[in-house]
Specification:
By secondary structure, the chain is α+β, with helices and mostly antiparallel strands. The chain has 15 helices and 16 strands. The strands form three sheets. An eight-stranded mixed beta sheet has the order 1-5-6-11-10-9-7-8. The chain is elongated.
Amino acid sequence: MPKFQTLKGFKDVLPEEFPYWRFVLAKAYELADRYGFLQVDTPVLEETRLFLRGLQEGTAIILDKELYSFEDLDGASISLRPEFTAGVMRAYVQHGMHTRPKPVKLFAVGPLFRHEKPQAGRFRQHTQFNAELLGEEDPAADLEIMQLAYNLYKELGFQDVSFQINSIGCPVCRPAYIEKLVAYFEAHYDELPAVDQRRLKVNPLRVLDTKEKATLALLDDAPKSVDHLCHDCAEHFDTLQGYLQALNLPYQVNFRLVRGFDYYVRTVFEVWAEELGAQNALCGGGRYDGLVESVGGPRTPGVGVGIGIERIVLSLKAQGVEPPALARPQVMTLHRGLEAKLAALKLTDALRTAGVPAVTAFGDRSLKSQLKSANKAGVRFAAIIAEDELASGVATLRDMETGEQVEVGLEEIVSWVQQNLLPHTSA
Protein backbone atom coordinates (compact mmCIF):
# COMPACT_ATOMS: atom_id res chain seq x y z
CA MET A 1 0.00 0.00 0.00
CA PRO A 2 1.27 3.53 -0.76
CA LYS A 3 2.08 5.72 2.21
CA PHE A 4 -0.56 8.32 1.26
CA GLN A 5 -3.91 7.95 -0.50
CA THR A 6 -6.74 10.25 -1.55
CA LEU A 7 -9.22 11.17 1.15
CA LYS A 8 -12.57 9.38 1.23
CA GLY A 9 -14.87 10.85 -1.39
CA PHE A 10 -12.06 12.47 -3.39
CA LYS A 11 -10.68 11.24 -6.70
CA ASP A 12 -7.59 11.68 -8.82
CA VAL A 13 -8.20 12.35 -12.51
CA LEU A 14 -5.55 10.35 -14.36
CA PRO A 15 -4.24 10.96 -17.91
CA GLU A 16 -6.44 8.20 -19.36
CA GLU A 17 -9.59 10.11 -18.34
CA PHE A 18 -8.59 13.50 -19.67
CA PRO A 19 -9.70 12.85 -23.26
CA TYR A 20 -13.21 12.68 -21.77
CA TRP A 21 -12.70 15.80 -19.65
CA ARG A 22 -11.28 17.82 -22.53
CA PHE A 23 -14.11 16.64 -24.78
CA VAL A 24 -16.81 17.62 -22.27
CA LEU A 25 -15.29 20.96 -21.26
CA ALA A 26 -14.59 21.98 -24.86
CA LYS A 27 -18.25 21.38 -25.73
CA ALA A 28 -19.41 23.24 -22.60
CA TYR A 29 -17.27 26.28 -23.46
CA GLU A 30 -18.35 26.16 -27.10
CA LEU A 31 -22.05 26.05 -26.16
CA ALA A 32 -21.67 28.85 -23.59
CA ASP A 33 -20.14 31.04 -26.31
CA ARG A 34 -22.86 30.03 -28.79
CA TYR A 35 -25.58 31.02 -26.32
CA GLY A 36 -23.91 34.30 -25.37
CA PHE A 37 -22.86 33.48 -21.79
CA LEU A 38 -19.81 35.25 -20.32
CA GLN A 39 -17.38 33.44 -18.03
CA VAL A 40 -16.77 34.41 -14.40
CA ASP A 41 -14.61 32.77 -11.76
CA THR A 42 -15.28 33.14 -8.05
CA PRO A 43 -13.07 32.01 -5.12
CA VAL A 44 -13.47 28.52 -3.71
CA LEU A 45 -13.54 30.12 -0.23
CA GLU A 46 -16.35 32.44 0.86
CA GLU A 47 -17.83 33.64 4.14
CA THR A 48 -19.89 30.81 5.59
CA ARG A 49 -22.86 33.12 6.08
CA LEU A 50 -23.09 33.64 2.31
CA PHE A 51 -24.14 30.01 1.91
CA LEU A 52 -26.43 30.03 4.95
CA ARG A 53 -28.17 33.35 4.19
CA GLY A 54 -31.79 32.79 3.27
CA LEU A 55 -31.59 29.01 3.61
CA GLN A 56 -33.98 27.13 5.84
CA GLU A 57 -32.67 24.85 8.53
CA GLY A 58 -33.92 21.83 6.58
CA THR A 59 -31.97 22.55 3.44
CA ALA A 60 -30.00 19.43 2.51
CA ILE A 61 -26.62 21.06 2.90
CA ILE A 62 -27.47 22.12 6.47
CA LEU A 63 -29.62 19.14 7.39
CA ASP A 64 -26.87 16.71 6.50
CA LYS A 65 -23.98 18.91 7.69
CA GLU A 66 -22.33 18.92 4.28
CA LEU A 67 -20.48 22.25 4.49
CA TYR A 68 -16.69 22.19 4.75
CA SER A 69 -16.43 25.09 7.19
CA PHE A 70 -13.63 26.26 9.47
CA GLU A 71 -12.31 29.30 11.27
CA ASP A 72 -9.41 30.97 9.50
CA LEU A 73 -6.42 32.66 11.18
CA ASP A 74 -8.35 35.94 11.36
CA GLY A 75 -11.14 34.28 13.32
CA ALA A 76 -13.69 34.45 10.48
CA SER A 77 -15.93 31.49 9.63
CA ILE A 78 -15.27 30.53 6.01
CA SER A 79 -16.37 27.61 3.86
CA LEU A 80 -15.36 25.83 0.71
CA ARG A 81 -18.09 26.58 -1.80
CA PRO A 82 -20.73 23.80 -1.95
CA GLU A 83 -22.38 25.35 -5.03
CA PHE A 84 -21.71 28.16 -7.49
CA THR A 85 -24.87 30.25 -7.48
CA ALA A 86 -24.48 32.06 -4.15
CA GLY A 87 -20.92 33.15 -4.99
CA VAL A 88 -21.90 34.27 -8.48
CA MET A 89 -24.75 36.32 -6.99
CA ARG A 90 -22.32 37.87 -4.51
CA ALA A 91 -19.99 38.81 -7.38
CA TYR A 92 -22.96 40.12 -9.40
CA VAL A 93 -23.85 42.54 -6.60
CA GLN A 94 -20.31 43.39 -5.43
CA HIS A 95 -19.10 44.38 -8.90
CA GLY A 96 -22.22 46.22 -9.99
CA MET A 97 -23.16 43.78 -12.72
CA HIS A 98 -26.81 44.56 -11.99
CA THR A 99 -26.28 47.84 -13.89
CA ARG A 100 -25.46 45.99 -17.11
CA PRO A 101 -28.06 45.54 -19.86
CA LYS A 102 -30.41 42.68 -19.03
CA PRO A 103 -30.28 39.79 -19.18
CA VAL A 104 -26.83 39.19 -17.70
CA LYS A 105 -25.74 35.70 -18.75
CA LEU A 106 -22.84 34.16 -16.82
CA PHE A 107 -21.15 30.79 -16.58
CA ALA A 108 -18.43 29.31 -14.41
CA VAL A 109 -16.41 26.09 -14.28
CA GLY A 110 -14.60 24.76 -11.22
CA PRO A 111 -14.59 22.53 -8.13
CA LEU A 112 -17.31 22.36 -5.47
CA PHE A 113 -17.05 20.69 -2.05
CA ARG A 114 -19.69 18.86 -0.03
CA HIS A 115 -19.19 16.37 2.77
CA GLU A 116 -21.78 13.94 1.45
CA LYS A 117 -21.90 10.18 1.13
CA PRO A 118 -19.71 9.17 -1.83
CA GLN A 119 -21.44 7.20 -4.57
CA ALA A 120 -21.12 6.55 -8.30
CA GLY A 121 -20.50 9.83 -10.07
CA ARG A 122 -20.73 11.86 -6.86
CA PHE A 123 -17.63 12.90 -4.93
CA ARG A 124 -16.91 15.27 -2.06
CA GLN A 125 -14.99 17.37 -4.54
CA HIS A 126 -16.59 17.55 -7.94
CA THR A 127 -16.25 19.87 -10.91
CA GLN A 128 -19.26 21.73 -12.22
CA PHE A 129 -20.24 23.70 -15.29
CA ASN A 130 -22.67 26.31 -14.01
CA ALA A 131 -24.81 28.78 -16.01
CA GLU A 132 -26.93 31.67 -14.73
CA LEU A 133 -29.35 33.99 -16.59
CA LEU A 134 -30.18 37.08 -14.54
CA GLY A 135 -32.71 39.86 -14.97
CA GLU A 136 -35.55 38.07 -16.82
CA GLU A 137 -38.85 36.69 -15.52
CA ASP A 138 -39.83 35.53 -19.01
CA PRO A 139 -40.34 31.73 -19.12
CA ALA A 140 -38.23 31.89 -22.29
CA ALA A 141 -35.27 32.48 -19.96
CA ASP A 142 -36.06 29.20 -18.20
CA LEU A 143 -36.25 27.58 -21.63
CA GLU A 144 -32.85 28.94 -22.66
CA ILE A 145 -31.11 27.55 -19.58
CA MET A 146 -32.85 24.23 -20.14
CA GLN A 147 -31.84 24.18 -23.82
CA LEU A 148 -28.22 24.87 -22.90
CA ALA A 149 -28.17 21.82 -20.62
CA TYR A 150 -30.17 19.63 -23.00
CA ASN A 151 -27.99 20.41 -26.02
CA LEU A 152 -24.78 19.84 -24.06
CA TYR A 153 -25.83 16.25 -23.45
CA LYS A 154 -27.21 15.75 -26.95
CA GLU A 155 -24.08 17.07 -28.65
CA LEU A 156 -21.88 14.93 -26.43
CA GLY A 157 -23.68 11.87 -27.78
CA PHE A 158 -26.28 11.07 -25.10
CA GLN A 159 -29.40 9.23 -26.26
CA ASP A 160 -33.04 9.46 -25.08
CA VAL A 161 -32.50 12.75 -23.23
CA SER A 162 -35.58 14.45 -21.75
CA PHE A 163 -36.69 16.87 -19.04
CA GLN A 164 -38.38 16.30 -15.72
CA ILE A 165 -40.05 19.55 -14.67
CA ASN A 166 -42.13 20.93 -11.83
CA SER A 167 -43.25 24.26 -10.43
CA ILE A 168 -42.87 24.69 -6.68
CA GLY A 169 -44.66 28.04 -6.61
CA CYS A 170 -43.55 31.31 -5.04
CA PRO A 171 -43.76 33.03 -1.64
CA VAL A 172 -47.37 33.93 -2.45
CA CYS A 173 -48.74 30.45 -3.10
CA ARG A 174 -46.19 28.08 -1.62
CA PRO A 175 -47.09 28.56 2.09
CA ALA A 176 -50.68 27.36 1.53
CA TYR A 177 -49.43 24.37 -0.43
CA ILE A 178 -46.89 23.45 2.26
CA GLU A 179 -49.64 23.68 4.86
CA LYS A 180 -51.67 21.08 2.93
CA LEU A 181 -48.57 18.92 2.39
CA VAL A 182 -47.75 18.94 6.10
CA ALA A 183 -51.33 18.11 7.03
CA TYR A 184 -51.27 15.10 4.70
CA PHE A 185 -48.01 13.69 6.02
CA GLU A 186 -48.90 14.38 9.66
CA ALA A 187 -51.91 12.11 9.14
CA HIS A 188 -49.37 9.41 8.21
CA TYR A 189 -46.68 10.52 10.66
CA ASP A 190 -46.20 7.11 12.29
CA GLU A 191 -45.59 5.56 8.88
CA LEU A 192 -42.73 7.93 8.07
CA PRO A 193 -39.10 6.89 8.70
CA ALA A 194 -37.22 9.06 11.20
CA VAL A 195 -35.34 10.95 8.47
CA ASP A 196 -38.60 12.05 6.83
CA GLN A 197 -40.21 12.88 10.17
CA ARG A 198 -37.33 15.28 10.72
CA ARG A 199 -37.66 16.72 7.19
CA LEU A 200 -41.37 17.24 7.70
CA LYS A 201 -40.65 19.44 10.71
CA VAL A 202 -37.89 21.58 9.20
CA ASN A 203 -38.36 21.50 5.41
CA PRO A 204 -41.50 19.68 4.26
CA LEU A 205 -40.74 19.92 0.52
CA ARG A 206 -37.72 17.68 1.05
CA VAL A 207 -40.05 14.81 1.97
CA LEU A 208 -41.06 14.68 -1.71
CA ASP A 209 -37.41 13.96 -2.60
CA THR A 210 -37.26 10.96 -0.27
CA LYS A 211 -35.53 7.68 -1.06
CA GLU A 212 -37.31 5.88 1.79
CA LYS A 213 -39.62 3.07 0.62
CA ALA A 214 -42.22 3.69 3.34
CA THR A 215 -42.56 7.33 2.31
CA LEU A 216 -42.53 6.57 -1.41
CA ALA A 217 -45.68 4.50 -0.90
CA LEU A 218 -47.46 7.60 0.39
CA LEU A 219 -46.46 10.03 -2.35
CA ASP A 220 -49.07 9.22 -5.00
CA ASP A 221 -51.86 10.61 -2.84
CA ALA A 222 -49.84 13.58 -1.52
CA PRO A 223 -50.90 17.12 -2.58
CA LYS A 224 -49.09 18.33 -5.72
CA SER A 225 -47.63 21.83 -5.96
CA VAL A 226 -48.87 22.32 -9.54
CA ASP A 227 -52.45 22.02 -8.27
CA HIS A 228 -51.95 24.89 -5.80
CA LEU A 229 -50.17 27.57 -7.85
CA CYS A 230 -51.21 31.21 -7.86
CA HIS A 231 -52.32 32.73 -11.18
CA ASP A 232 -48.85 34.13 -12.04
CA CYS A 233 -47.02 30.88 -11.25
CA ALA A 234 -49.57 28.78 -13.14
CA GLU A 235 -49.32 31.07 -16.17
CA HIS A 236 -45.52 30.94 -16.04
CA PHE A 237 -45.51 27.14 -15.89
CA ASP A 238 -48.12 26.77 -18.64
CA THR A 239 -46.13 29.12 -20.91
CA LEU A 240 -42.90 27.20 -20.32
CA GLN A 241 -44.63 23.93 -21.24
CA GLY A 242 -45.95 25.58 -24.40
CA TYR A 243 -42.40 26.56 -25.37
CA LEU A 244 -41.12 23.04 -24.74
CA GLN A 245 -43.89 21.61 -26.89
CA ALA A 246 -43.30 24.13 -29.69
CA LEU A 247 -39.60 23.17 -29.83
CA ASN A 248 -40.37 19.44 -29.61
CA LEU A 249 -38.35 19.09 -26.42
CA PRO A 250 -39.48 15.97 -24.51
CA TYR A 251 -40.57 16.52 -20.91
CA GLN A 252 -42.64 15.09 -18.12
CA VAL A 253 -44.17 16.90 -15.15
CA ASN A 254 -42.75 15.30 -12.00
CA PHE A 255 -44.58 16.43 -8.86
CA ARG A 256 -41.81 14.96 -6.66
CA LEU A 257 -39.14 17.20 -8.16
CA VAL A 258 -37.69 19.77 -5.75
CA ARG A 259 -34.20 21.23 -5.37
CA GLY A 260 -31.67 20.93 -2.53
CA PHE A 261 -31.53 24.68 -1.92
CA ASP A 262 -34.50 26.68 -0.65
CA TYR A 263 -33.94 29.77 -2.76
CA TYR A 264 -35.63 28.09 -5.74
CA VAL A 265 -39.08 29.28 -6.85
CA ARG A 266 -41.39 28.32 -9.70
CA THR A 267 -39.51 26.25 -12.29
CA VAL A 268 -37.33 23.36 -11.18
CA PHE A 269 -36.03 20.81 -13.67
CA GLU A 270 -33.69 17.91 -14.27
CA VAL A 271 -32.26 16.42 -17.44
CA TRP A 272 -32.67 12.65 -17.59
CA ALA A 273 -31.23 9.95 -19.84
CA GLU A 274 -33.55 6.96 -19.58
CA GLU A 275 -31.02 4.33 -20.61
CA LEU A 276 -28.88 5.04 -17.56
CA GLY A 277 -31.45 3.38 -15.29
CA ALA A 278 -31.27 4.23 -11.60
CA GLN A 279 -28.70 6.95 -12.30
CA ASN A 280 -30.78 8.62 -15.03
CA ALA A 281 -30.81 12.12 -13.50
CA LEU A 282 -27.94 13.95 -15.18
CA CYS A 283 -28.24 17.51 -13.84
CA GLY A 284 -30.67 19.96 -12.28
CA GLY A 285 -31.54 23.61 -12.07
CA GLY A 286 -34.36 26.08 -11.73
CA ARG A 287 -35.50 29.62 -10.99
CA TYR A 288 -34.37 31.67 -7.95
CA ASP A 289 -36.04 35.08 -8.20
CA GLY A 290 -35.24 36.22 -4.66
CA LEU A 291 -31.61 35.19 -4.32
CA VAL A 292 -29.92 38.41 -5.43
CA GLU A 293 -31.91 40.37 -2.83
CA SER A 294 -30.79 37.95 -0.12
CA VAL A 295 -27.14 38.89 -0.75
CA GLY A 296 -27.83 42.64 -0.73
CA GLY A 297 -28.72 43.38 -4.34
CA PRO A 298 -31.80 44.82 -6.04
CA ARG A 299 -34.76 42.70 -7.05
CA THR A 300 -33.42 40.46 -9.83
CA PRO A 301 -35.11 37.37 -11.22
CA GLY A 302 -32.78 34.57 -12.18
CA VAL A 303 -32.61 31.02 -13.45
CA GLY A 304 -29.68 28.63 -13.66
CA VAL A 305 -28.32 25.10 -13.95
CA GLY A 306 -25.41 23.14 -12.50
CA ILE A 307 -23.86 20.27 -14.46
CA GLY A 308 -21.35 17.88 -12.88
CA ILE A 309 -18.43 16.97 -15.14
CA GLU A 310 -17.58 13.71 -13.35
CA ARG A 311 -21.20 12.60 -13.78
CA ILE A 312 -21.01 13.25 -17.53
CA VAL A 313 -17.73 11.37 -17.89
CA LEU A 314 -19.11 8.36 -16.01
CA SER A 315 -22.25 8.39 -18.17
CA LEU A 316 -20.29 8.69 -21.42
CA LYS A 317 -18.32 5.61 -20.45
CA ALA A 318 -21.52 3.75 -19.55
CA GLN A 319 -22.95 4.58 -22.98
CA GLY A 320 -19.77 3.57 -24.79
CA VAL A 321 -19.17 7.06 -26.19
CA GLU A 322 -15.51 7.46 -27.19
CA PRO A 323 -14.06 10.97 -26.98
CA PRO A 324 -11.72 12.30 -29.66
CA ALA A 325 -8.10 11.33 -29.00
CA LEU A 326 -5.88 14.10 -27.67
CA ALA A 327 -3.03 15.36 -29.83
CA ARG A 328 0.17 13.37 -29.33
CA PRO A 329 3.79 14.20 -30.23
CA GLN A 330 4.40 13.59 -33.94
CA VAL A 331 8.22 13.71 -33.91
CA MET A 332 10.89 12.50 -31.52
CA THR A 333 14.42 13.78 -32.03
CA LEU A 334 17.09 11.10 -31.41
CA HIS A 335 20.79 11.80 -31.03
CA ARG A 336 24.21 10.17 -30.85
CA GLY A 337 26.95 12.32 -29.37
CA LEU A 338 27.03 15.55 -27.35
CA GLU A 339 26.91 17.94 -30.31
CA ALA A 340 24.13 15.90 -31.90
CA LYS A 341 22.12 16.13 -28.67
CA LEU A 342 22.38 19.92 -28.71
CA ALA A 343 21.25 19.92 -32.35
CA ALA A 344 18.35 17.63 -31.41
CA LEU A 345 17.25 20.01 -28.65
CA LYS A 346 17.35 22.93 -31.09
CA LEU A 347 15.37 20.96 -33.68
CA THR A 348 12.72 20.02 -31.11
CA ASP A 349 12.35 23.68 -30.18
CA ALA A 350 12.04 24.69 -33.86
CA LEU A 351 9.36 22.04 -34.46
CA ARG A 352 7.33 23.13 -31.43
CA THR A 353 7.65 26.80 -32.43
CA ALA A 354 6.22 25.84 -35.84
CA GLY A 355 3.26 24.13 -34.12
CA VAL A 356 4.44 20.53 -34.54
CA PRO A 357 4.13 18.46 -31.33
CA ALA A 358 7.64 17.11 -30.69
CA VAL A 359 9.73 15.55 -27.93
CA THR A 360 13.42 14.79 -27.39
CA ALA A 361 14.90 11.50 -26.23
CA PHE A 362 16.43 12.12 -22.81
CA GLY A 363 19.72 10.72 -21.54
CA ASP A 364 22.52 9.21 -23.62
CA ARG A 365 21.09 5.80 -24.48
CA SER A 366 21.86 3.89 -27.66
CA LEU A 367 19.97 4.74 -30.84
CA LYS A 368 18.32 1.32 -30.66
CA SER A 369 16.98 2.12 -27.21
CA GLN A 370 15.88 5.60 -28.33
CA LEU A 371 14.00 4.11 -31.30
CA LYS A 372 12.15 1.84 -28.88
CA SER A 373 11.14 4.93 -26.91
CA ALA A 374 9.95 6.63 -30.11
CA ASN A 375 7.86 3.60 -30.93
CA LYS A 376 6.29 3.53 -27.44
CA ALA A 377 5.58 7.26 -27.68
CA GLY A 378 3.57 6.63 -30.84
CA VAL A 379 5.28 9.35 -32.88
CA ARG A 380 5.01 9.36 -36.67
CA PHE A 381 8.65 10.29 -37.34
CA ALA A 382 11.96 9.86 -35.59
CA ALA A 383 14.54 12.50 -36.49
CA ILE A 384 17.94 10.85 -36.00
CA ILE A 385 20.91 13.17 -35.62
CA ALA A 386 24.36 11.57 -35.43
CA GLU A 387 27.65 13.43 -35.11
CA ASP A 388 29.05 11.99 -38.33
CA GLU A 389 25.97 13.31 -40.21
CA LEU A 390 25.95 16.59 -38.34
CA ALA A 391 29.01 17.83 -40.22
CA SER A 392 27.07 17.35 -43.46
CA GLY A 393 24.08 19.30 -42.10
CA VAL A 394 21.61 16.45 -42.47
CA ALA A 395 19.52 14.13 -40.31
CA THR A 396 17.75 10.87 -40.99
CA LEU A 397 13.94 10.97 -40.85
CA ARG A 398 12.44 7.55 -40.11
CA ASP A 399 8.77 6.84 -40.68
CA MET A 400 7.84 4.81 -37.60
CA GLU A 401 4.84 3.26 -39.37
CA THR A 402 6.55 2.05 -42.56
CA GLY A 403 10.21 1.91 -41.47
CA GLU A 404 11.22 3.99 -44.50
CA GLN A 405 14.12 6.43 -43.99
CA VAL A 406 15.26 9.53 -45.86
CA GLU A 407 18.03 12.07 -45.30
CA VAL A 408 16.85 15.67 -44.93
CA GLY A 409 18.86 18.85 -44.43
CA LEU A 410 18.62 20.18 -40.88
CA GLU A 411 17.27 23.51 -42.12
CA GLU A 412 14.51 21.77 -44.12
CA ILE A 413 13.31 19.31 -41.49
CA VAL A 414 10.52 21.51 -40.10
CA SER A 415 8.95 22.15 -43.51
CA TRP A 416 9.49 18.51 -44.54
CA VAL A 417 7.71 17.25 -41.45
CA GLN A 418 4.83 19.70 -41.91
CA GLN A 419 4.33 18.60 -45.52
CA ASN A 420 4.51 14.91 -44.73
CA LEU A 421 2.21 15.13 -41.72
CA LEU A 422 -0.62 16.74 -43.66
CA PRO A 423 -1.88 13.65 -45.52
CA HIS A 424 -1.53 11.55 -42.38
CA THR A 425 -3.43 14.10 -40.25
CA SER A 426 -6.28 14.56 -42.72
CA ALA A 427 -6.72 10.81 -43.06
